[in-house]
Each structure stands twice: as structure tokens, then as C-alpha cells.
Amino acid sequence: MSTKTAVSTPHAPAPAHTFHQGVRTGPFVQVSGQGPVDPTTGEYLHPGDVAAQTTRTLENVRAIVEASGASFDDVVMLRVYLTTRDDFAAMNDAYGAFVQEHCPSGVLPSRTTVMVELPREEMLVEIDAFAITG
Q1: Rounded to 5 degrees, what are φ and ψ at 81?
Q2: pLDDT tens across 105-131, in order?
Q3: H or E segment at 4?
Q4: Nearest to 124 by CA among 62, 64, 58, 36
């Protein structure tokens, strides 16, 4: 049985609650849900702009994946949580540009998108990830 280890980086926001930014066990990496937060200031960025929030959120996810020793290209699944279906197209465009840029293998991660209420009113999007390293 593999040992479970916490993943932590100053290049993504510190968790606000009782969980780690990510957890690694063997080749598996699970990234906790991230939002559009500046890792340095803790400020929620880009109010009302789901495309910019999506890009910032994916940058936070990528920082945690890389802190685990994996690369964004190792991500096999992303889960996207949106507060409204009306934001889907803008999120999808920003998401598509990001994953294509950061997946040089050309094999893009699987994805699920769900409409939900999020913990903070200013959050339009939250994203978590699952990666498997070689």
C-alpha cells in the first residue's frame, strides 16, 4: 500500500479549510477544488468574468499538480463546477485554450461540468483535478 502525502505549494492559494491543496499516493494525485484566487494575496480575482476566472483557476490547479512532481499533461480528469449554465460557453473557450497549451501530448483530460452553488458569491467557477504520473 502506498503512503499518502500532502501536496503543498506557495504558487496556489492556501486552503481555507481542513484539507490540503492536493494529496498524492503512489502515481495518483488528487487536487482539491480551486477557485480564481491570487496565491499571494488570497484575493478573489476577475469578478463577473468567468473566462478570466477559469484561466486563473486552472493556473492554481497546474501549480498544485506540478508541486506533486507531475505535469499538467499527466492530468486525466478535470471536474468543473459553474454557478450558471449561461457561463458554459465562455468557460469552455478559456478552458480549451488552457488545456491545449498545457497538454503537449495532445491527449486532453476527460472532463465533467456541473452547475452548482459555490462557497463564495464571487466564485463563478471551481475546478478539481486527478492526475496519474508515469
Answers
A1: -115, 120
A2: 999 999 999 999 999 999 999 999 999
A3: strand 4-7
A4: 36
pLDDT of residue 17: 81
Asked if residues 132 and 72 have their Cβ atoms less than 8 Å apart, the reply is no
The single residue listed with the C-alpha cell 508515469 is 134
Q: Do residues 121 and 53 lie in contact, with contact meaning Cβ atoms separated by under 8 Å?
A: no
Phi, psi for residue 3 in degrees, rounded to 5: -85, 135
Q: Which helix (H) or strand (E) holds 94?
A: helix 88-102
Q: Is the pLDDT of residue 35 over 90?
A: yes
Residue 115 near residue 79, CB atoms below 8 Å? no
